[in-house]
Amino acid sequence: MAISLQEALEEIRELVYSPGFVRAHAKGVTIRPVMLKAGRRFQVVTRDGLDTKNVTSVDDVLAPAAWTVETTSGTVRMQLTKKGAILHRSSSSASPELEHDRSKEHLLDPGDALFDVVGGNAAKRRQVDAFLRQLPRLSGKVRIVDLGCGNAYLTFAAYAYLSRLGIDVELVGVDVREDQRIRNTEIARRLGWPIQFVAGEIATVELEPPDMVLALHACDTATDDALARAVQWRAKWILAAPCCHKDVSRQLRSKPSKLLTAHGILRERFADVLTDVVRAGLLREHGYDVEVVEFIDSAHTPRNALIKAVYTGRGHHDPSLTKLLDEWDIKPAMVEAVSARSVSGASG
Ligand SMILES: C[S@@+](CC[C@H](N)C(=O)[O-])C[C@H]1O[C@@H](n2cnc3c(N)ncnc32)[C@H](O)[C@@H]1O
Fold first, then answer.
1. How far is the CA of 54 from the centre of ligand 1 (A)?
2. What SS3 class is residue 152?
3. Which helix (H) or strand (E) segment is 234 a member of?
4. Lower CB count within 10 Å: N or C terminus of the chain?
5. Cα dist. 323→236, 254, 317, 327, 346 in Å?
6. Tens-digit pLDDT profile for residues 273-314
C-alpha cells in the first residue's frame, strides 16, 4: 500500500539509525555504519564509488530515492510511486560488520557502491579485492591492460581503487567477446570513467604497450597468450592468476609415467603445477623477477595461484627449463606463444 513520501523516508531513516542497521543503498550512494576510534559513524560512498566520507548524520543523504535498507532483522525496499512510496519488506537479514572498520580489511569493500553498478557475486568481489592487494606501489601515470577481462569486475575495481589513490590510471580491458565489450563500455559511460574496452584475441589485439598486464582467470591458454604479450610489450609488471590448465594435461595423457598421469584428478593437478613452473621459468628467462603466491584462500576459489612478475632486464637462459620440457616431452602453450611473438630470449 502506498504511503506518503515523507512517512516512507521517516521509516527508512529510523532503520538507518537503528542498532541493527547494516547497509542502505540507492542509485549511486551507499551508507553503512563503521566503528572508528572516534565512535560509530556512517560511511557514505557516493559518485558510484569515487567519494567516501564518514559522518555522524545522514539526514541530508536520505533524499527521496529507491532505497534498499538491510538490517539484522530484515530488508526494506522503498518503491517510489505516483502517490508516494511503497515499502516492501522481506525477512532476508544481513550481518553487521561493525566490529572493525572494514575499509582497513578491504582495499575495495565488497559493499562498495561500485558493485551496485558493475555487479559481481560475493566470491568475485573478494577475489577482486584480494587481487588488488597484490598490486605494486604505484605513483604518477600508469597504463594497464586487463586481458580476458570478461565482465570487467577487476578492470572497474582497479580503476576505482587506483584513481582514489590519486594515480593517473589509463585502463584497457580486452575480451574476445563483443557482447562483453558493449556491456562494459556502457557501464564505463554511465560511470563517466575513461576505461576503454576492446573486443579481440589476446594473442593478436593491437594495443599501445602497457606498464602493467593483469589477467584474472583468463581461460586455459589465454593466460599463456597474456603472459607472452606482456613479455612482448616488456610490461614492467605482470599479475596473472591462471584458470584451468587443460593444454599440458592433454599432453600428459599419453606419457609413460603412469604413476603421475593415470588418474585424471592427479594428472590435472600435476599439469597445473608443471604449467605454472614453465610459465614462471620462461618469464625469468625473459628478464622478469617472478613470485608465485596464493592471492586468496582456496575456500574462495580453487584457482588461487597468482604469478607476479616485475621486469628487471636480467634474464638468462635456464638449461633446467629445457631439461624439464624434454623429460616430459611437452610443449606448453606459453613456449609457442612466446616464440610466435619472436620475443628474443635472455636479455641484460
Ligand atoms: C573465466 S572468465 C574471467 C573474466 C574476468 N577476468 C574475471 O575474473 O571475472 C575468462 C574470460 O576470458 C575471455 N577469453 C578467453 N580466451 C580469450 C582470448 N583468447 N582472447 C580474449 N579473451 C579471451 C573469455 O571470453 C572470458 O570472458
1. 37
2. coil
3. none
4. N
5. 28, 19, 12, 6, 17
6. 999 999 999 999 999 999 999 998 887 788 899 999 999 999
Which of 227, 217, 172 lies closest to 194, judged by CA? 172
For residue 47, what is its C-alpha cell?
559518485
Chain-centroid distance, C-alpha 330: 32
Residues 6 or more apart in contact with residue 205 via CB below 8 angstroms: 174, 198
Is residue 33 within 8 Å of residue 98, measured between CB atoms?
A: yes
Distance of alpha carbon 31 from alpha carbon 70, whole angstroms: 10
As given in the structure block, the three cell numbers for residue 175 are 575480451
> Which amino acid belongs to residue 266?
L
Gap between the Cα atoms of 139 and 146, Å rounded: 19
List the end-to-end C-alpha distance of the chain, in Å, as a whole number: 74
Going along the chain from its start, the domains and CATH numbers come out as 5-100 (no CATH), 105-340 (3.40.50.150)
The answer to whether the beta carbons of residues 75 and 94 sit under 8 Å apart is: yes
Q: Whose Cα sits closest to atom 8 in ligand 1?
A: 216
Residue 147 pairs with which residues in a beta bridge?
174
Q: Which of 126, 146, 155, 175 to mutate to test the pocket of ligand 1 (most atoms within 8 A of CB)?
A: 175
Write out residues with Cβ below 6 Å of ligand 1: 124, 148-151, 153-154, 174-177, 180, 201-202, 216-219, 222, 225, 243
Q: pLDDT per residue over 208-241, tens digit each?
A: 999 999 999 998 899 999 999 999 999 999 999 9
Could you give the percent of the chain with pLDDT greater than 90?
57
pLDDT tens-digit series, residues 23-45: 898 987 888 888 776 778 888 87
Is residue 142 within 8 A of residue 165, CB to CB? The reply is no
In tens, the pLDDT along 169-205 reads 999 999 999 999 999 999 999 999 999 999 999 999 9
How far apart CA 336 and CA 342 sit, in angstroms, is 10
- Polymer length in residues for the chain: 348
Q: How far is CA 266 from CA 186, 258, 261, 272, in A?
A: 43, 11, 7, 10
Contact 196, 171 (CB under 8 A): yes
